[in-house]
Every structure is written in C-alpha cells, then in structure tokens.
Write a structure and sequence with these properties.
Structural class: alpha+beta
Oligomer: single chain
CATH architecture of the largest domain: 2-Layer Sandwich
Order of helices and strands: HHHEHEEHE
Helix content: 25-40%
CATH superfamily of the largest domain: Lrp/AsnC effector binding domain/regulation of amino acid metabolism (RAM) domain
Number of domains: 2
Number of helices: 5
Distance between the termini: 25 Å
Strand order of the largest sheet: 2-3-1-4
C-alpha cells in the first residue's frame, strides 16, 4: 500500500470533485459552471490526480433499464464465527459486483447484478452458495429499487 499524504482541499476542489462525480464535463463546461478559467480547472484536476484523490479513467455508469438488467441490494448478517468465511465466499460469486463491510445488525451490503427476470435465480444462487458453507446462522435482506446514486463525496 502506498503512502497516504494529507492534502487540504478547498471549496473549489470540493466543487470540482462534486461535479466530476455526478456527470461528465469538459474543462470548458466545468469552468463555466464554476465561474473560473479553463486553466484553473485543468490545474486543479491535475492536483487532485497527483494527490491520488482521483484517478483519471474512462468509466461509464450503465443504464440498467436499457440493458435489461436488475440491481439487487442484499444485506447480510452471519454468526460471528462464520462471518469471515461467508463474506469471502460471496465475493467470488459472479453476480456480486460490490461488497461493503458494515458494523451493526447488517454486517455487509452486497450489490448483485443480473438480467431482468432472473432476480429469483440470482438470489437462489446466493442462498445455495451459503448453504454449501455449512455455517451457523445467517440472514439476508433483499432490496430491488435504486432510489438514488451519487458518487460525489461532497
């Protein structure tokens, strides 16, 4: 793991981060929107990259409706002694795209993506994988609808 440097981000940095996390903009678009020059936007984005606050990559957020996909959010809890084994195992399932470890009643939240109409089979495959582990108790809560998605930290 690399060295983490403490970097101070001012209000403009935070506004730029917010904008680039919520949409795709050119430097000119960002400059107009934030009332600064294009070169200011360029320098600030370079600073964000050099500080490792962001990585410049081509990324797309798919439209699940157009692609005929469903996103299934699953809350998972397992017996304390079995939790690590359960979470390591579900990470390997092909439909699991995201796993967030938590503290509290729900110990993990997973995002599963499947073709629309296959939600039941996808959830059944999760139950089947857990049954193979022969663990103690576990609990799954399922949600099917995105209410909001915003990757901006500010």
């Amino acid at each position: 793991m690399g060295i983490v440097l403490s970097v101070v981000f001012d209000d403009l940095d935070k506004k730029i981060l917010h904008e680039i996390c919520t949409g795709i903009y050119s430097y000119d678009d960002l400059a107009k929107k934030l009332n600064v020059t294009r070169s200011t936007i360029y320098r600030r984005i370079e600073k964000l990259e050099q500080s490792h606050a962001i990585d410049r990559k081509i990324m797309a957020i798919p439209n699940f409706n157009v692609l005929n996909l469903s996103a299934i959010i699953v809350g998972l809890s397992a017996a304390y002694d079995d939790a690590e084994k359960v979470f390591e195992n579900i990470q390997t399932l092909p439909h699991v795209k995201f796993l967030w470890r938590c503290y509290g009643e729900v110990q993990a939240v997973a995002l599963l993506i499947c073709e629309r109409g296959n939600e039941g089979a996808t959830i059944a495959s999760l139950y089947k994988a857990l049954a193979k582990l022969e663990t103690g108790s576990y609990h799954i809560t399922v949600g099917f609808k995105w209410e909001r998605m915003d990757f901006s930290p500010f």
